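Researcher: Please predict.
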Amino acid sequence: MIKTSRQPADLQDDANVLLARDVSLLFTQNFGTLRERVSDSWLTAYATVVEVQNWLANVARVARQTMPVIAADVNRPPAFATALSAAVFGESRAGTLLNDADADYLLAVRDAGDVPAANRADLAMLLRDGHLSVYPDATLRPRMPLSRARVLHAIARLLEARNLLQLQKANARPTSDGQLILRTTKGKDQPIRVNLDAFLFRYLGERPYAVSSVALVGGEPVTYHLAPNGQIDFLEVRPAPNGAAADRMSPFANWSKGLSPAQVQARLARAARGIGSIVDLRVVSRGASRRVTDLEIVGTSGTAHVRGGRIRSALGLREQLFVIDREYDDAGRVTEFTFVGRGWGHGVGMCQVGAYGLAKQGWTSEQILKAYYSGIEITRMY
């Protein structure tokens, strides 16, 4: 378990969820006038000219560029876009790579006419690359100050896109004593300490959320930043693709098998006599372990059932812990049944791969046996 003393962002507005990550990344780069714990009200307020000047000075420092000339309206979209481009690239990159037709085409917003000619290319490139977004009414509001959220999001995204934030990626191993253990590209495990006040993020669905702790079972893709002391001050964790179950290391943990109705008919010939051509399969019941115990075969002339262990053996499946997906033709007829399942075995007793996985996690033999066989006592017989 990796923990941090830092409190997660104080956010309630769904639109600001990603901003916590953006601000945290900039904080690791020593950006000034930032709050360690951002709130909705602070993010949605207009950014002042002084704040934007300060942030752009830090952008130029990180990008190793000279401080650009700052206009008096740098907290408004047109001037901000041009100043940000200069701070990152040292010049107007868009002014060289986009002609007037490109800029006009990309600035397909209702108030594009309010964008000065000198800023059009820079603003168009920010929009094209997704670093700056339009408002819900498809406007840019060029004459209005930008919120802190929009300014900081644009800065963080552009710096990250240019690989200027010094972020590193790896796969995690199970944690030990608060250390993050990373599997390097050379297949070696490297322990790295995490700062006590590190920024922690955990992906839930498609978005990262600020958290106070995160459990690592091994196999999680992580993105991290190293502080000057060599320890991690920003850690972002995605769930391990194989989950957290003890059998996740097995290549047989997850499987799928596709069968056409004709193939199913052939394999279930004994059980499906007299029901005509098979049109569907239905799971009627499952046992306590969620394994299928009764499979109904629906035919053009009737139905039949396959029950118990015969389901797995007759269909040639690895397990009876499965669900059924279907593909249809234009007439709505099933063209293929796809059995999507987990595990390989009869489903009664101890899973060898699972037991191995628990042992890798530090479980004793007694703990493993009692996990699979409840209510038992282990005694020495000799």
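Model: The mean pLDDT is 89.
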